[in-house]
Write a structure and sequence with these properties.
Layout lengths: L2 E4 L1 H10 L3 H10 L1 E5 H10 L3 H13 L3 E2 L3 H18 L3 H20 L2 E4 L2 H11 L2 E4 L2
Parallel strand pairs: 1-2, 1-4, 2-3, 4-5
Amino acid sequence: MRFAILDTNIYIDHWERGYYGEALETVRQAYIVRQSAVVLSELRRGAHTPDAEQLVSNLSRIAPTRWEPTAEDWWQAGGIIRKIGDKKGWETGKRRDFQNDALIALTARRHGATVVTADVADFELLTRELRVSVLFVQ
């Protein structure tokens, strides 16, 4: 049984722009999709219209399983962010934004899941550092 976590950008681009229809169908056939608590939080934070809030609420309500970062995931994320951020010369804001991606990747790795994302730049860095499985979609 193979699992996947859809990154926040996949939901947003699919809901708002209709992107990734074929890719999502392929993912649904090949994986059991699990919801990341981090992704659900990001989606809720960005839901600024009643329709968007309803989509996020429905997704959260029907999610049979939510995967959350552990204390160890948070600890590891801090080290990874410091290492990559220092190497890249990132400011505080970029490090803060990257934290959620690191938490999603660490959670997926712990469960042996694949992250499905369109965020090539950040997740290529994470795959090199964490050896997490990532499926990039366009």
